[in-house]
Specification:
Layout (H helix, E strand, L loop, with lengths): L1 H22 L2 E8 L7 H9 L4 E8 L5 H11 L4 H5 L2 H4 L5 E10 L4 E2 L7 E2 L1 H14 L12 E3 L6 H11 L12 H6 L7 E4 L15 E5 L1 H8 L8 E2 L8 E3 L5 H6 L4 H8 E4 L2 E4 L1 H20 L3 H11 L2 H25 L13 H4 L1 H6 L3
Parallel strand pairs: 8-10
Antiparallel strand pairs: 1-3, 1-6, 2-3, 4-5, 7-8, 9-10, 11-12
Helix pairs in contact: 3-7, 7-14, 12-14, 13-14
C-alpha cells in the first residue's frame, strides 16, 4: 500500500498544481523586514517594487519583552521547524525591535502543493524574491545570522493571522505623522478645531493598516473660507491635486445621521476626541459605521444568485460585483482587527485620550455578528 501511495503521490500533487494555477491568478502576501536590516528598509522596499507591486507598507515596533513570543507565533503560522528558528532567534532578540510589513501582489504565482489534500501550499515566487533580497543585503548586515533580513507568508489566508499578531504585540504609537496625507493636510493650515477626521483615520494608531483617503467633516466657517458657501449635502475634495485624497463630508454624511445632529459644529462638539492636536471622530461612531456598511454589503451579496455568490466572487465576477466583495472583505477584516485591538486591551494605553468602553464601541463589537 505504501508503495502504491508513493507512486501516485507525484501525480496527485501534479493535478493539484494545475488546479492551483487557475485557483490563484494572483495572490497577496505579507512580507516582513526584520530589525537587523532596519537601515536598509527603504532600499529593500525599492528593490521589491521593481519586481512586484507593493499594495501597502507600514512600520511597527514590538513591545519590550514580547519579541520572542511574536517570532514563535509568527513562524508557527507557516510550520517552521525549531531548528530554523533557533538559527536566528538570538540575533532577532537584539533591541530595538523595529519592523516593517509590506503587502505585495504576485500575478500567476504557480502555487505548489505540499500535501496530498492540497491543505498546505507554498509560493515559489515569493521564495525567489527573498533569495534575491538576501543575496544583495547579507554582506551589509552587522552580525548577520541565518535569514534575519526578510520573511513572508506563503498563502493569502495567512495575512490576517500575521496582522493579528502585529496588533497583539506591537507598541501603541499615536504620532499623527503615521497618517497618510498628514503632511499634505497640515500644509493647508486648517484650524484643527474646525474639522474632525472620520473613517479609517483611527486604524494606523491601532496598528491595523494605513488609512485610505483622509475624510473630514468641516464646520460651516471653514467651508465658507475655502468655497465661500455653507457645507453642502454632498461630499467634495480640497482644492487642487489632492481633491480625491482629502475629502470633505457633506450634511448627508452617514456620521451626521449616526450622531443625530443638525450641524457639523454640533457634531464636533459632541463626538470629537483630540489626539496629537487633531480631532478624531469618537471610535464608537466609526465602529457603528463599519457595522452598518457590512450589513448593507452582505444584503447586496445575498441578493446575487448562488453561482455568483459562491463561485465567481471577486476574481471572475464583473467589476461591480468584484468591488462589492472587496468592500465587504475589507470592512469585515477591519472589524475583526478592531475586535483584536480591544481583546488585547490596547485601547487602555495612556497614549489615547481617556474614553469609556462605550466611547470605544466595545459593546457594539461584542454584540455584533459581523
Amino acid at each position: 500500500m505504501r508503495t502504491v501511495r508513493k507512486l501516485i503521490r507525484p501525480f496527485i500533487r501534479f493535478i493539484w498544481n494545475i488546479i492551483n494555477f487557475f485557483r490563484w491568478p494572483y495572490i497577496d502576501l505579507a512580507v516582513i523586514l526584520w530589525p537587523p536590516a532596519y537601515e536598509y528598509f527603504d532600499d529593500i522596499v525599492t528593490d521589491i517594487k521593481d519586481i512586484y507591486p507593493v499594495l501597502d507598507e507600514r512600520d511597527f515596533e514590538i513591545e519590550d519583552g514580547s519579541m520572542k513570543k511574536f517570532m514563535l507565533e509568527l513562524y508557527a503560522i507557516d510550520r517552521a521547524t525549531e531548528k530554523k528558528i533557533s538559527l536566528k532567534i538570538d540575533r532577532l532578540l537584539v533591541a530595538p525591535h523595529k519592523l516593517r510589513i509590506l503587502k505585495i501582489r504576485i500575478r500567476w504565482p504557480r502555487m505548489k502543493s505540499h500535501c496530498d489534500f492540497n491543505s498546505w501550499v507554498k509560493c515559489p515566487k515569493v521564495n525567489e524574491l527573498k533569495q534575491v533580497i538576501r543575496k544583495k543585503y547579507t554582506s551589509k548586515i552587522k552580525d548577520y545570522k541565518y535569514d534575519v533580513i526578510i520573511h513572508s507568508t506563503e498563502t493569502d489566508s495567512q495575512i490576517k493571522e500575521v496582522e493579528d499578531l502585529i496588533v497583539k504585540y506591537s507598541k501603541v504609537d499615536t504620532n499623527p505623522e503615521k497618517l497618510r496625507y498628514f503632511k499634505e493636510l497640515k500644509s493647508f493650515q486648517f484650524p484643527s478645531e474646525e474639522y474632525v477626521l472620520l473613517n479609517s483615520a483611527w486604524l494606523p494608531f491601532f496598528n491595523i493598516r494605513k488609512n485610505g483617503d483622509l475624510d473630514l467633516l468641516p464646520t460651516n466657517n471653514l467651508y465658507q473660507k475655502i468655497f465661500s458657501k455653507d457645507v453642502p449635502n454632498f461630499s467634495s475634495g480640497v482644492p487642487g491635486k489632492l481633491e480625491n485624497r482629502i475629502r470633505f463630508h457633506g450634511l448627508n454624511s452617514p456620521y451626521m445621521k449616526l450622531g443625530d445632529v443638525n450641524s457639523p459644529e454640533e457634531f464636533i462638539g459632541k463626538y470629537a476626541k483630540n489626539l496629537g492636536g487633531l480631532n478624531f471622530v469618537l471610535p464608537r461612531l466609526y465602529v457603528q459605521y463599519k457595522l452598518d456598511r457590512v450589513q448593507e454589503t452582505r444584503h447586496e451579496i445575498n441578493k446575487l444568485n448562488f453561482l455568483r455568490r459562491k463561485f465567481l466572487k471577486k476574481r471572475l465576477a464583473t467589476k461591480n460585483i468584484r468591488k462589492l466583495f472587496i468592500k465587504f472583505d475589507k470592512d469585515h477584516s477591519d472589524l475583526k482587527a478592531i475586535s483584536g485591538f480591544f481583546k488585547y486591551k490596547k485601547h487602555e494605553s495612556d497614549s489615547f485620550p481617556k474614553m469609556t468602553n462605550m466611547d470605544w464601541g466595545i459593546d457594539l463589537i461584542d454584540q455584533s455578528n459581523y
